[in-house]
## 1
Amino acid sequence: MHRLPAVLISVARSAVLLIAAGAVFCRASNVGADDRPHIILFYIDDLGWKDVGFMGSTYYETPHIDRLAAEGMIFTSAYSNGPNCAPSRASLMSGQYTPRHGVYTVGETDRGDERFRKLLTVKNRMVLRDEFVTVAETLQAAGYQTASLGKWHVGDDPTTQGFDINIAGGTAGSPGRGRYHSPYFYPNCEQPEPGEYLTDRLTSEAVNFITQHADEPFFLYLPHYAVHVPIEPKPAVEVKYARKQTTPEHFHPGYAALIESVDDSVGAVLAEVERLGLTDRTVVLFTSDNGGHGVVTRMTPLRGSKGMLYEGGVRVPFAVKWPGHIEPGSRCDVPVIGLDIYPTLLELTHTPRPEGYLLDGESLVPLLTQSGSLQRDAIYWHFPAYLPSNPGADVPFRTTPAGAVRMGDYKLIEFFEDGRRELYNLAEDIGEQHNLFDERPETAARLHTRLQAWRESVNAPVPTEPNPKYDPTAVWIDAR
């Protein structure tokens, strides 16, 4: 496969990048392939809401990502489909909420010390079943060339679910220690000799794919393994950040270096789009699969981090560029969720929805073009799982089984172990510090009724059976 010269990444960091989207809606059955827009979706792993410059970071350097955002629309209230990797990806691909496909978490739902788990958990699926029609399958059927370059994590091989090309994607949820740097042996992405960096290799493969398919519509899904742990950056870039002034939120030079390599990737990919003259017919989306990892970054003022249903675990950076339709420098405060990407891509390419197939999200085209609004008034999460706490915590779990709903400015979280509910007004309290459950009982009841009705509509399993191995006398000591 083609390898991207190191100099291209260096040059791309200082290049002026212009990425555009197709300005004309055309049905695939009525027009030639040249009239339909290309699609590039950057889906970054564990990148927190404030981990890019366009969302306020002054420590991390993301000039290419920031340029993309500045020339398109920034969604300030964008959410992931789940608080960790696998459920977000399964819902992104399927276009459906987690209870419909059963991928609720990474691994099993009963993670952590059993002595502290009050409930027996529901069964988790680790593979997105073939019965679900992915966005890639739908675009592929419409004549798009499709490629998944990077992390898959919802099955063995994305080529079984709509992708013509798979590079480095399989069941793995992270690179594994020592695997950001070669030698490594990913599916269709091997390098036995030392010296290659995984983020650069995926970028090289992306550039090669774009070059090969410039004359036909393509869907390039670029789900980098970065910035997931282990923190294994390029040493020279890490040294640069070690010499830089940190902030209370952003302080880890190795993590900062991982982010810079992702920004280099965005720059190099979009520089190739510009070089080939594809700017005016390429739609670019940039987002993350969940909140930042609490060990290496903070989302202040948001509460929590990856693995939680608080804002820090599910609110993510999201920007879309589409010249001629999206006003440069525009911002949207309407709550949106990753589920919306599937119907959005179908509408902007005028690809028909799969017949008889349910999509839970809404197209964002009315928001992107500032021509209308969304029809829904609420979005939901269902996470019937335990996740162990981060090292150094004084509690055993980051989260216990829970569900949540956001409706207007209000968000309600329900914890299934004891039925505890927390209500927040995010317009007044984005940090979720003031629980309004007792102060505004009518609002809490209204949101809880909606959450219960939604769970019934999607057959969401709620764990209720007591765990016989739960020990209320056990004392938590973090020995990590």
## 2
Amino acid sequence: MFKKILIANRGEIALRVIRTCKEMGIKTVAIYSTADKDSLHVRFADEAVCIGPPPSSESYLDIAKVIAAAEITNADAIHPGYGFLSENAKFSRICEENGIKFIGASPEMIEGMGDKSSAKATMIEAGVPCIPGSKGLLKDLADAKKTAKKIKYPVMIKATAGGGGKGMRIVWSEDEMEEHWNSARQESKAAFGNDGMYMEKFIEEPRHIEIQIAGDKYGNACHLSERDCSIQRRHQKLVEETPSAFMTDKLRDKMGKAAVKAAKAVKYEGVGTVEFLVDKNRDFYFMEMNTRIQVEHTITEEVINYDLIKEQIKLAAGDKIEKEAYYPQMHAIQCRINAEDPFNDFRPSPGKITEYHQPGGHGVRIDTHCYAGYVIPPYYDSMIAKLITVAQTREEAIRKMERALEEYFIDGIKTTIPFHQKLMKDEKFRKGDFTTKFMETFEM
């Protein structure tokens, strides 16, 4: 087992990893930018190293500085959390070259699954259901039009290096293709330095359901059931829950087996997620594989009583997978609490938290790095906390969430708490009657 782990991240996920490491008897190193000097992850790590000024490119994304911090503190492993360098093949490779264990996927795995078109080709070969679309990258506009005609409109053109909704466009007819083709390529080039595009059939009335997986270096893999991530805005998740209200036992079994098949096909090592779109007929299609821990890993932990960060560390240290599948015993919901103004188009709201009171009680969990007096910097993602409730049934979990949101008080900044309060009272949400299009008609 590792003696000391450097956490190459910030905020709540860094604190989350530190907690598990302490329980495992592993020393921790926090890295931080000057903007994060007062963050709780810095305070609770055994050691902390400042690696640069606020911009991510000069701190958390600076590979040389992160490796240097690991070397001067004698860390024998690096946990990347999510975001930043967690799915950076170059970083994974450099860790390897420097004799530091990267607690995540191998460079080859990240490269294979990070490129959407090659990932899809791999899944088709493995027999995992995939959305009909182009065979690899589209050559040009003419190829895009020809492919769309073959798979039939509506279609979705996507950036092969994409993420966070960038470089994606829905095209409803051939008349719209040229405009969307050009704008998607320009956006992708600006965001990722790559304007490669591929195409898929656009799935109407979809659910976004992902399967948590884990794999070891001996070729074993398991799934840990599903999470429904359909409540999202501009492709950014807002609320996640498990089990999905849309799921059946038969579908869970089929999707779980498909996810394990996907993991074994690529010899997946570590903890990851296979993401699917599920249509109104409960037919499911592979979307992508995330080769890292997810923001919403918390709800899976709560319903199966399983520390996924601990499992991630153990797998990286060479442990074996013990079971083929885990199934939810409870119901859990997670609300992402962002420093955003839901009454003003979710505009970011950084600044000083003047008053802070978080809820508690049975079945309530909060992952956060915030406190009264903490200044939320404007340089990073706006998520400041994750509020999770767990209960015997979905109805009870929603009621518990309503109570917890009432107790959650953050002053000095705007947050998404009012949005979540309204969502929990929404009739369609309470019935489980929603798709990824839900937020297009939801009004504050």
## 3
Amino acid sequence: MFKRILVANRGEIALRVIRACRELGIETVAIFSEADRGAPYLELADEAICVGPSRAADSYLRIDRVISAAEIGNVQAIHPGYGFLSENSHFAEVCRSCDIGFIGPTPEAMERVGDKNSARALAREAKVPTVPGSEGIISNEQEAVKVAREIGFPVLLKATAGGGGKGMRVAANDLALASAWQQASAEALAAFGNPGIYIEKYIERPRHVEIQILGDQHGNMFHLWERDCSTQRRHQKLIEESPSPRLPQATRLAMAEAAVRLAKTAGYYSAGTVEFIVDQQDNFYFIEVNARIQVEHPVSEMVTGIDLLKAQIRVAAGEKLDLKQEEIIPRGHAIECRINAEDPAANFRPCPGRIDRIVAPGGFGVRWDSHAASGYVVPPHYDSLIGKLIVHQPTRKDAIDTMIRALRELRVDGIKTTAPIHIELLQNSAFHDAQVDTTFVERVVLAK
């Protein structure tokens, strides 16, 4: 087991890693930018090292500075968290060349699943259903029109290096496709430095369901069942829950088995997520693999009782997972709400600034994962997540009721947060009846 780990991230996930390491008896070195200097969670690390100015491009994304901090801190491994360098195969390769453990998949496995186009090819190899679409990257508008006519409009253009909804456009005809092509390609180039675009058949009003996977270096791969992430705005997840309501058991089992099959084909180990969309006839199609721990991992932890962060660290250290698939049985229902420093009443405008007072909710089945505290200043330079509110109860109805109570109990004075929109969503009759798809928030709630 590692004796000392560098946490190459910030905020909530950095604190989560620090806590997991402490419980495993591992020392931690935290890195921080000037914007995060003095953040309360840094005090819980054994050492903290500044890696640069406030901009992520000058600090958390600087591989050379992160590696220098690891060498100064005399660590044996680096945990990248989520975001930043977590899915950067070059960073994982640099870690390996410097004889520093990378707590995640190998660079080779990350390459296989990281590019959406190659991941689709891998899925086809593993006999995992994919959405009808182009065989590879589309090179020009004329080819895009040809493919779209073959699979039928409407179509979805997607950036091969994309994420978070960037580089995505829907087109309903030839004329719209030409404009969408230019917009998606330009946005993909600006966001990811890669203008590559491929085309899929647009599945109308799908559900977004993902499978949590966990494997070790001894050839074992398990699934920890599914999370439903359909409640989202502009492809950004707002609420996640497990198990997925309204999902037939046969579909659930087939999707989980497909995720494991794909991971094994890729030679993947560590924690990861295989994402699918489910159409209105309960057919499922592969979207992508997230080769890292997910923001919503606590949902799976609550229903399975497995600490994914500790498991990740143990796997990276070469330990064999002491698990059996038939013993991973989901119990109860878990829901997570992402609490962001945004104002839902002002089109989700970011609201950085000082938190004058924060009062965390509690009670049976309530978990609050947050790095924020009274007096903490939310910087404007990064993702606006300030905390994750998770509840776990015997039934979905109980979980919804507890979450509404906990959201009302949460107090964050000084800035606006997304808590009010979560309450509105949870009280919506369609959400109660599990009649939710990825268009639900904009189509039903925000359209009022």
